[in-house]
Amino acid sequence: MTVMVEIPRDSKPRGAQNWTVADLEKLPDDGRRYELLDGRLLVSPAPTVKHQRAARGVFRVLDTTRPPGLEAVFAPVDWQPERTTSFQPDVLVIRDVGPEAKNVTSGLVLAVEVLSPSTRHLDLGPKRARYESAGVGSYWVVDPDEPSVRVWNLVDGHYQVGGVAEGDQKLEVTTPFPVTLSPSALLRS
Q1: CATH assignment, 47-188
Q2: Is the model's pLDDT at 9 over the cut of 70?
Q3: Alpha helices (H) in the chain, listed in sequence order
């Protein structure tokens, strides 16, 4: 479960609702995932091996099929569209941000979240809504426990279902670029 944890007093300069991306720099490197949603600090435990296998499978598929001008990267990389929001999608497809970029502030083309018990409600609710409102063209959710992939694409400012696949089914996606996914295969790669 994503929870609030005790943070050293000098790392928490403001109340629980007023965190900024600058405050994240002061947090300990302790294996937890620290994210922000509208100034609220979200803390999740390190992912499981199954979770990481799914993320690796998605990354491999995207990295080998992406066109020039796009780059696939994997967590932990912060997407920070504004000063009070910072997410670490499991896999990101971005436009070139340059070799010196520390975080992604623009150019996010695709965000992929792999569900876990601690993040499921956030990934399917508030995070999806934030990616949508920020204009991220595609959002995918992978469930490694019941192998499945859900794809949403931005159409006229709102996400519409672009496809769903379960188990060994194949899903052909055209946005942001053509790729074929099989949920079970993602866990084996």
Answers
A1: 3.90.1570.10
A2: no
A3: 21-24, 49-65, 120-124, 126-133, 183-188
